[in-house]
Amino acid sequence: MEFVKDLKWKEGMDVNELVSSLGKVGFQSVELKKAQENIIKMKKDGAKIYLTFTSNMVTSGLRGFFAQLIKLGIPDVIVTTVGGMEEDIMKAYGEEFVIGDFQANDVELYEKGVNRVGNLFIRNESYSKFEDLVSPIIKGIYSKKKRVTPSEIFKEIGLGLKDEDSILYQAAKNNVPIFCPAITDGAFGFHLFMFQQNNKDFIVDVVKDFQNILFSTSQDEKKGLISLGGSISKHHAILACLLNGGLDYAVYMTTARHTSGSMSGATTNEAKSWGKVKDDSDAITVIGDVSINFPLVMISVLEELKKDEII
Amino acid sequence: MEFVKDLKWKEGMDVNELVSSLGKVGFQSVELKKAQENIIKMKKDGAKIYLTFTSNMVTSGLRGFFAQLIKLGIPDVIVTTVGGMEEDIMKAYGEEFVIGDFQANDVELYEKGVNRVGNLFIRNESYSKFEDLVSPIIKGIYSKKKRVTPSEIFKEIGLGLKDEDSILYQAAKNNVPIFCPAITDGAFGFHLFMFQQNNKDFIVDVVKDFQNILFSTSQDEKKGLISLGGSISKHHAILACLLNGGLDYAVYMTTARHTSGSMSGATTNEAKSWGKVKDDSDAITVIGDVSINFPLVMISVLEELKKDEII
Amino acid sequence: MEFVKDLKWKEGMDVNELVSSLGKVGFQSVELKKAQENIIKMKKDGAKIYLTFTSNMVTSGLRGFFAQLIKLGIPDVIVTTVGGMEEDIMKAYGEEFVIGDFQANDVELYEKGVNRVGNLFIRNESYSKFEDLVSPIIKGIYSKKKRVTPSEIFKEIGLGLKDEDSILYQAAKNNVPIFCPAITDGAFGFHLFMFQQNNKDFIVDVVKDFQNILFSTSQDEKKGLISLGGSISKHHAILACLLNGGLDYAVYMTTARHTSGSMSGATTNEAKSWGKVKDDSDAITVIGDVSINFPLVMISVLEELKKDEII
Amino acid sequence: MEFVKDLKWKEGMDVNELVSSLGKVGFQSVELKKAQENIIKMKKDGAKIYLTFTSNMVTSGLRGFFAQLIKLGIPDVIVTTVGGMEEDIMKAYGEEFVIGDFQANDVELYEKGVNRVGNLFIRNESYSKFEDLVSPIIKGIYSKKKRVTPSEIFKEIGLGLKDEDSILYQAAKNNVPIFCPAITDGAFGFHLFMFQQNNKDFIVDVVKDFQNILFSTSQDEKKGLISLGGSISKHHAILACLLNGGLDYAVYMTTARHTSGSMSGATTNEAKSWGKVKDDSDAITVIGDVSINFPLVMISVLEELKKDEII
User: Fold this and answer.
1) Please, which chains are in contact with A (at least 3 CB pairs closer than 8 A)?
2) Whole domain around residue C134: which residue ranges?
3) Whether residue C24 lies in the annotated active site
């Protein structure tokens, strides 16, 4: 039996100490500490780790943190949506996103050519530049291979980037496949379509990538999932692991509620009914903004893994 | 200037009267009434209507309601995720889903072969039967055409079903295309992969379906969106309309919050910065469970359209 | 075992039919139907019914509906916050609240003397008029009795109002006590303080009202709670019933989450650990906006009670 | 114009560095950093600082952190609910609260005499001991004064405690008044009632405490509010400051949504319509669990104030 312990500030307190203290505070802080323990456990247990996130997290400054985590060998497989990959490319080419305001006047923003994603702003010109970047990339891929999977496309792109902070670059370099079951759902889809107009034999083979994610692990392997936000990224990683006997560890971080039966809000508890996760201590849901909770958990994980010379 | 008006029960009150009264109550009830007005407006204005929903809504009894709406000519285009289409097929073949409990013991459910989706239960055998159903379907499609799009697949399946309450059936019959940008993200993906193993020239062409959704409307056409829940369905419909000059009307119903910058929680307000929606009165977000709010809004819409002999 | 049933629109569908259908849809619609059944059960079982709500619901058009419910004999005891009672008085004297906008410019509103409560607006003059109304009322009460409880004050005020749609009026007329454990937390508190400045022997005895709510029921009596929103109103009703052996029935309607351990978000499930509610079927939490869900549930309850000649 | 900056882990990263980095990440992390800046600003500007929190936060390990903040001179006035003060007393006398589980079986807990507050457990015996503690305290207060305010009661209790980690002790010692507009809404209310049964001239004067909170500041003084969670604590502090010309700074931390028009979910934006807060940069709402966000913000504030030798 563990007891609540009064939190105390000590001068110069580091993140790892704070996360330790939070474990005795209560409510989501307790779940956050359990998430940290669970991720350490999955890493030490040699589990294959799936990391999923949504596009808006790549819009945010988590993008470079994801890249760093890949470099440090934390995730083995990534599942995400195409919007984030587009923005990773933009950023790799120097585009900057603006810190704005949730309450901005959206009509005014539109007139200025600014697109709002929560309290972040993306300028139209970032998309125009993306257009110039992506066309030669698709052409280059096609020149080598006429039938490609999304994960091959992303690997190819990553190899061509020269940005240490890029998810695509680090993933390509470290052989971490990036799966994206809805590759056409973004500006990228538009450019693929444009290219296919003139190159009818160009095929993006999503079915083949289902095989690739399926074979990214096996029944025998331990499997862990770190799922940030909801969407098909979360669903797809769960599905791939389920078809391989189910997850051994799962950490979900989300703001969505379970009360509507949506995938985004589905807790690790519900996952147990799907045979995905087996034990209470290995299935943790932390409710709250990923932009705060994920760095907090993960920095603390990294400190512990460093201490134990695992990274 | 409109004023708050005290709600009063009258014996035998019908849904349409209630929705009218709710328009003067306050908070989300006011938004709900605005959503009703907005949908009537888009219909009367002859807008092309995009309806998007998530899989869990097809798990629920909204499934037959969606089918009815298609039959009545409300949506012109549907965008959804593959899980829902799988369940529509299961239901068309007589599978029944159980009304369960959010607090069910998930480990016990697993041992009984029951999968939980919120407070609904799906039995494993429903999936096994799906396996038996889907293989001949894919085979049949392949025998006609080796390179198909998701929307073609769904049309083909719909034509083969014999269930008035099926979304796929009604959509096929009424020429309403169903777009599904992540067709492999479900049991269906697994069966496509199995089939492709032995039929390497079988291609699911998602890029071509991007063209199809893009050409499903045009710059000149008025466009309206009814988006239920979030996910790529919502994003994909917005994207397609945006590339055609933007939406004229939008109703979003969701439980997600806008505070995390996610697509699921993005409000119709944010949509204005993307040039998607132009006017306040034409962009309504209703926060709450779709299983309650959508029938309430839509029944009231249908009553009004019936009165005006539009349906 | 109950099964999901496809929802279908029928022309002229009444609210009661819709609520019946919703019971087979899934997610919160199922909980909503259970709430309806639970309230009917508590009424038929002769339970003493506690109704709690927050001030913003009185700002809204639910105010007249609450009054109607009191008139129809639904609640036996009311627990609320003082802000709502202030607004009930304003409305009884003809003040009108405006249907506004969640996205209004708040600085502009301030400059126009308009106060925003969600998407409802209250003009400053409504408060000024309240000042003129409340002073003679307090004076009148003091002239009869120098030491009064909040529930006595509200009864006294109610007796003086002449508005069928007033909560205070109907409560006074039908001997439904209104408890308000924080009577000073509003404009009313300010006026009580002003009056006490010149009348030091004027005492508002909140401790005595604790006795009154405690004696409003007994161990032997069946007890039911309909709690709308959170706040001390919810807590206070639970507490009073707990000290009398616990609740037999409970319906909570809220938008708050249980994940932060707050009273507002506490579910009826948690209530079971407090010995408050005993059985699953008698403890229902419906997540969503009360401005929609409460009328829906309650109109359906009234229809059923009318059918059975209970009201 | 500020830009999104990729977050990077550095070994041994301290909390203050993390909070700085979060300011460039996006979504709630940006708001969290603004909250830190706002609190530093209110402190440096010599504003009178109101701190409000709900009972469940005192159940949690934030309790000792609140005590530390009082000791360090951060808040000048506290507004809270009585449940928290009861638990502060229990803890001061050595009671321990258990770290439990959100998914615990509530019926089993009840049978074991355990009460659940989110994922924290309070044993029945803690309440029994409280009974033994509180009776002589009330008796002692009564022997000195027959008509007392809640804030006087809390001061009296605090002076008698000998626990550095107690909110009541630190508040009493540092002349920080604790206001509690609903003092009877808890076990404390029950004991006050029991005592009054035999001592009819014992009066708890809540109206007088309205004067006290009103006079706790003035029109001339700068005023800042740190409001954690919702409830009457939040409302009461806003009200007191509003009657003194309005707040100059406000930081709200909550999980509640603004979409239902509730006080708990009301944002600092809405506060501007009430003349409470004047400028955008001085009114920050952080959405998320206080058990995580408050320590993060506040530790960073303390580090900065320490650096500047303000604490």
Assistant:
1) B, C, D
2) 41-95+127-307
3) no
